[in-house]
Specification:
single chain
Length: 153
């Protein structure tokens, strides 16, 4: 049996910028497209949340966090989700998730795999679990896993 020692692609990305630690005054939200991810249609599944209600609820959360931390919010767009160009007063950036996490003071997420970047950069993470998401068992299981393994439970 041959054993291949490898690591996650996120770790490869992190290695390219790891020597440039810096923290700026913004919070980053790792948008995973919970409401519009194209994989749901591909798999013939409904999205876990309705798009308009989700966007309104997330805008409320992002506004509250912005006020709490006295800084702006930057949304790290999911690479497969193209619809979020304007989330009212929040900048949306595509393709720079690792760098955004590196520069942020706090990472917001549901259960994005990009949470790995927060771990690698030793950034605080706040998991968002909206009431409208609680019926979706896979999302709940992932959020609970992150809570347990990040010591947030």
């Amino acid at each position: 049996m041959t054993i291949l020692h490898a690591h996650h692609r996120d770790y490869e990305t992190w290695l390219t910028v790891k020597d440039r630690p810096v923290t700026e005054e913004f919070v980053v939200f790792l948008d995973e497209g919970l409401d519009v991810h194209p994989d749901y249609a591909l798999l013939g599944m409904p999205a876990p949340v309705e798009a308009t209600a989700y966007e309104l609820a997330m805008l409320d959360v992002l506004t509250a966090v912005s006020k709490e931390y006295h800084c702006g919010i930057i949304i790290a767009a999911h690479p497969k989700v193209t619809r979020r160009k304007d989330w009212t007063n929040h900048v949306v950036i595509e393709g720079h998730t690792c760098d955004l996490v590196r520069r942020s003071k706090l990472v917001l997420a549901h259960d994005s795999t990009a949470i790995h970047f927060a771990i690698l950069w030793n950034k605080p993470v706040r998991l968002i679990n909206l009431d409208m998401m609680k019926w979706h068992e896979p999302t709940q299981a992932a959020i609970e896993w992150w809570k347990k393994n990040l010591g947030l439970a």
